[in-house]
Design a protein that fits this description.
Layout lengths: L2 E9 L3 H4 L12 H9 L2 H15 L5 E5 L2 H11 L4 E4 L5 H8 L3 E5 H7 L7 E4 L7 H7 L3 E6 L14 E9 L7 E2 L3 H8 L12 H7 L9 H9 L2 E5 L9 H4 L5 E6 L17 E3 L8 H4 L7 E3 L8 H4 L7 E3 L8 H4 L7 E5 L6 H4 L7 E5 L12 H4 L7 E5 L6 H4 L7 E5 L6 H4 L7 E5 L5 H4 L7 E5 L6 H4 L7 E4 L7 H5 L6 E5 L3 H10 L4 E5 L1
Parallel strand pairs: 1-6, 1-7, 2-4, 2-5, 3-4, 5-6, 7-8, 9-10, 10-11, 11-12, 12-13, 13-14, 14-15, 15-16, 16-17, 17-18, 18-19, 19-20, 20-21, 21-22
Helix pairs in contact: 3-4
């Protein structure tokens, strides 16, 4: 099998640990010192641990290689799973044998090259320098190698010497155009760990516009064969697409997801994309009923500010279950109420959708409504419709003054609820939600005495809630995830009592405080946002 090499280009804001280190004796870069610094970058290690956690769920056997034992032990602590083992020096032969049989093995390069059989692993991750395993990679011919590329030019090594297909990914621990955030779990799931041989979920736009139709293409025939035949997701950008390029897209017979930026004019070609399951038109106003009615396999549709799509085409989409009408000014109550198969609906910042249509959509299990502006309240959706949506499991409400405890207490199937500036919804109704495990409170009137009674919560987000402090949060011993905008609401002693906590997100906290929390909760991943 041909190697698949996934190169992750990682940028860090930690200037101290990414600085060039010079060997005073030779005047050349001190490679070993820079590798040591690289292995200590906090957010980089959080990214790697998140990647490994997601790989646990795939059932794949994974080998991670590092040049530093300290990094191995740190990652093992962050992941905290009995399916993950350490493979380092000074371990007995018996322990090494047991360790090598775990699903994920964290090993040093030296130990791995000495005694590990690379053929036993589905995925190999290089966290520092790939060159140490190049030779074995060519021999074992693995299907997937994940190479986390270093920033230092002195440390940079090209995977082009590898035999195989290369995918590029870009991650940073600070805001950087073109780079995903280091703590973006969705990016890891959707792009990095997606099984390439079964589904390709991303398509670099350069491939469409430069490589595929050129006789001198750098892309192998294998690439083209895979791209043309596999399920594909494509985003067309305003600055990289012209109508003349449309015929290229026609070669992708299994295009399942298409996203169009506002100025894209797709022409007639889209009518032939009959396999399309998800379409994100967004602000694009070049898409109309005549075109949409051909896409009868659509399951998910995002319209937003589009004004040319109406019920005339929507009624043709009999498989449609997911509809996003954020900011849409065309789809009315009369149109929406006929789409009774919908299970997901987003009507945020929508002034047309009212109780008259919502009350008919009784199959909904995910509903997002309200406004993003706390100065603008939604009064047109009320208890009248909400209380009828008893299949709802995920509900997000923002600035809706006509929804109260009266309807919420009826929705006993809810597992996740997001409340933003909803002062008419409180503990009086939440106590009836026996399946509730995830709660987000932003500027609500729920107080600490009420919150402490909700002991079944596994995920909690608190923002601008003056009546809630750590005195109440410590009663929520099942919490696995906690997000708070003000670290001042909870003390170090109180945090230390949340022994099941695996993810803690805080805002603008000093580095000293973060380190103290990590010492108290060594199994918790702490994310400090600025």
């Amino acid at each position: 099998m041909t190697n698949l090499i996934k190169k992750i280009h990682y940028k860090s804001f930690d200037e101290e640990k990414t600085a060039l280190v010079i060997n005073k004796s030779t005047g050349s870069p001190n490679i070993q010192a820079m590798i040591s610094n690289l292995a200590k970058i906090e957010k980089r290690n959080i990214f790697i641990s998140n990647l490994l956690k997601r790989l646990l769920d795939t059932g794949k056997k994974v080998l991670l290689l590092s040049s530093r034992t300290e990094q191995i032990y740190l990652l093992h602590r962050l992941i905290n799973s009995n399916l993950v083992s350490i493979y380092v020096g000074r371990m007995t032969k018996k322990k090494l044998t047991i360790s090598s049989n775990k699903q994920i093995v964290l090993a040093t390069y030296a130990m791995a090259n000495e005694s590990i059989q690379y053929d036993n692993f589905d995925i190999i991750i290089s966290s520092t320098l790939l060159k140490y395993i190049d030779q074995k990679m060519r021999i074992t011919n693995h299907s997937t190698i994940i190479d986390i590329v270093n920033e230092h030019k002195s440390l940079f090594r090209s995977s082009e010497q590898q035999i195989g297909i290369i995918q590029q990914f870009y991650v940073a621990d600070y805001k950087c155009d073109g780079y995903a955030s280091y703590d973006d779990i969705d990016y890891i799931d959707k792009y990095i760990i997606t099984e390439f041989w079964d589904i390709i979920d991303t398509l670099p736009h350069e491939i469409i516009y430069q490589w595929i139709n050129k006789g001198t293409s750098k892309v192998s025939k294998l690439w083209c064969k895979l791209w043309y035949s596999k399920p594909m997701s494509i985003k067309l950008r305003n600055d990289h697409f012209a109508v003349k390029d449309a015929d290229i897209l026609l070669k992708f017979k299994n295009l399942v997801t298409l996203e169009l930026e506002s100025e894209i004019q797709i022409g007639e070609f889209v009518k032939s994309l009959t396999m399309l399951k998800e379409l994100r038109i967004g602000d694009n106003d070049h898409f109309d009923d005549e075109t949409l009615c051909y896409l009868t396999n659509l399951c998910s549709l995002t319209l937003m500010r589009n004004t040319r799509v109406t019920i005339e085409s929507l009624r043709c989409l009999t498989k449609l279950t997911d509809l996003n009408l954020d900011k849409n000014t065309t789809i009315t109550d009369a149109m929406l109420k006929t789409l009774t198969n919908l299970t997901r609906l987003n009507v945020v910042n929508n002034k047309l959708i009212t109780d008259n249509s919502l009350k008919h959509l009784t199959h909904l299990n995910h509903l997002t409504l309200g406004t993003n502006n706390f100065l603008v309240c939604n009064q047109i959706i009320s208890d009248e419709s909400i209380m009828r949506l008893t299949n709802i499991t995920h509900l997000s409400i923002a600035n809706c003054i006509s929804i109260t405890n009266k309807s919420i207490e009826k929705l006993t199937n809810i597992t996740s609820i997001h409340l933003n500036n909803t002062n008419k919804i409180g503990y009086q109704s939440l106590k009836h939600l026996i399946n509730l495990s995830s709660l987000c409170l932003i500027n609500t009137n729920i107080n600490g005495l009420e919150l402490r009674k909700m002991t079944g919560l596994k995920s909690l987000t608190i923002k601008s809630c003056a009546n809630i402090t750590g005195v109440s949060i410590i009663y929520l011993t099942n919490l696995g995830s906690l997000k708070i905008d003000n670290i001042g609401v909870i003390t170090f002693t109180e945090i230390s009592r949340l022994t099941n906590l695996r993810n803690l997100t805080i805002h603008r906290c000093s580095r000293a405080h973060v380190k103290k929390i990590e010492q108290m909760l060594p199994n918790t991943i702490v994310q400090n946002l600025f």
